[in-house]
Design a protein that fits this description.
The chain has one domain. Helix content is 59%, strand content 12%. The chain has a 5-stranded mixed sheet, sandwiched between helices.
Length: 249
């Protein structure tokens, strides 16, 4: 195990946090109104009592951005975790399906599936992760039957005070960052570097955001409004109407 140099982590974060902001803006630039309308629940937006094209489009886009940013930043944090593991444990990004990170420590091969937060999946998704862990263990033991393999679900934020899940361990927040780095306070050490030039980059994002809202509101009013009011029937038809001529047989 190597000693982690926090300055290296700070430098990595400051040099690479721009990737997150670039992907946020790219996601906006590539977004199409019809794509979002097909993905979101029109009944929910009707229940929220939205009246104007601007209200509807903003609510629609904000819902998309919230879930999309969580995914983008989760991917970024995964890369940070791998970088830290490389520095400390000579770890590596795994090539095994469902496994993000591998490293050796204390005579064990740790296989890690990295997620953003503790509430990342339902029972079926967790069952799939366990199957991936079992498959990875079989693959690794093919070349070394005595290899002690430990499966870990690492979550970049949040808490889980019962980490032993039987077949695998679940380390969240402080526990996860300490697990890969050997530093109990790393989870707080990285928060300031993550904000590097955040205001400047967010200003650029906001400019793209409002330009898109204006464009989407104009297009939405043309296609789904009558006299400035939302035509909910037309909107639901666009979102949900079957293409077959006969639905019930």
């Amino acid at each position: 195990m190597n000693q982690l140099d926090l300055d290296d982590v700070v430098q990595y974060v400051e040099q690479n946090i721009g990737v997150f902001h670039q992907k946020r803006i790219q996601s906006l630039d590539s977004l199409r109104l019809t794509q979002v309308l097909k993905r979101k629940n029109p009944y929910l937006f009707k229940a929220k009592n939205l009246f104007t094209p601007e209200q509807f489009v903003k609510s629609l886009v904000d819902a998309h951005i919230s879930s999309n940013e969580e995914t983008i930043f989760g991917d970024w944090l995964e890369q940070l975790a791998i970088f830290i593991s490389v520095q400390v444990h000579d770890g590596w990004k795994s090539g095994i399906t469902g496994i993000d990170l591998e490293f050796d420590a204390d005579g064990r091969r740790n296989i890690v599936a990295i997620k953003s937060g503790p509430n990342w999946g339902n029972s079926s998704q967790i069952a799939k992760m366990i199957l991936d862990f079992k498959a990875a263990q079989r693959i690794l033991r093919t070349s070394n039957s005595q290899l002690h393999v430990v499966a870990v679900n690492g979550c970049c934020y949040g808490k889980d005070d019962k980490p032993d899940k039987g077949y695998y361990f679940k380390f969240c927040g402080q526990r996860f960052w300490a697990f890969i780095s050997g530093r109990n306070e790393l989870f707080t050490d990285i928060i300031e570097p993550v904000g590097h030039r955040a205001r400047e980059r967010n200003d650029e994002f906001i400019e793209s955001y409002w330009a898109m809202i204006t464009r989407f509101a104009r297009d939405f009013e043309t296609d789904f409004c009558v006299d400035g009011k939302i035509d909910w029937v037309r909107l639901v038809q666009f979102n949900s109407q079957a293409t077959e001529s006969r639905i019930i047989r």
